[in-house]
Structures are given as C-alpha cells and as structure tokens.
Amino acid sequence: MSLIKWRDEFSVGVAAVDHEHRELIELINELHELTKSGGGRERVVESLGEIYAQIAAHFALEEKIMRDSAYPALREHKTDHESLLDQLRDIMDRVEDDGRYDEERLSRDLERWFTEHFRTHDARLHFAQR
C-alpha cells in the first residue's frame, strides 16, 4: 500500500516539476514498502540517499524556475527547501548511526514532510504560475 498517493493539489502546473513530484512520491513509496518488508539498514540508507539526491536536484529545478519568473516568495521557498534537506539528512544520520530505524516514524516524517511542502509552498508556486 502506498504511503503517499498523488493528488491534484500537488500539481504546480509546471510539467517538469509535476513529473519530478510524482517520481519523488514513487521513491518515498518504494522506501515505505522496503521498511515494511524489513529491508536492511544498508538498503534503507541507500534508498534515503537516492531520495536525498533526487530531492536536491528537484529543488534546484524549482528554484531556477522561481528565479527565472521573478517569483516573489523565492527566499522563503528556498529556506523551506534547505530546512527539508536538513531534516532528511538528520533522518539519514539516525539510520546510519543507530543501525536501526523506526519504520513508522520514518514513514510518518517523510509523508508529513512532502505533503506539507506540496500543500503550502508548492501550492503558492502553482498559483503564481497561472
């Protein structure tokens, strides 16, 4: 069962961004399934690393689009991106350092992290693009 299902409210109306949002949700759902099936720490760390790399690249794309369109909330949006990357790095560090992970907490953190960002910052980007 998927942790995050795509919803229209996640769309920002920019095809490349929406495509990457769908890919990120897919990666998170794959990690969720991995943790539910008792995936080993190394596989979880590897999956988190892939998610981190994809998110960092995605944020760079979003920020370029915002700069190119003189998006007025760029600074705030970029700050949220940096905060989210820091939080994900903290999650990765916990898994790497402890050798264990709390499946429910990891899934809850990732689900909350993405849906809140999509509903708030990315939703504003959507309306600014119209």
Q: Which short descriptors sum up this protein?
A:
about 130 residues, single chain, mainly alpha, Four Helix Bundle (Hemerythrin (Met), subunit A), about 0% strand
Structure description:
- The chain has 130 residues and is mainly α.
- The protein has a single domain (14-129), classed as Four Helix Bundle (Hemerythrin (Met), subunit A), CATH 1.20.120.50.
- 78% of the residues lie in helices and 0% in strands.
- The chain is built from four helices and no strands.
- Helix 1 (15-36) packs antiparallel against helix 2 (41-68), helix 1 (15-36) packs antiparallel against helix 4 (103-129) and helix 2 runs antiparallel to helix 3.
- 22% of the residues are buried.
- The model has no long low-confidence stretch (mean pLDDT 83).
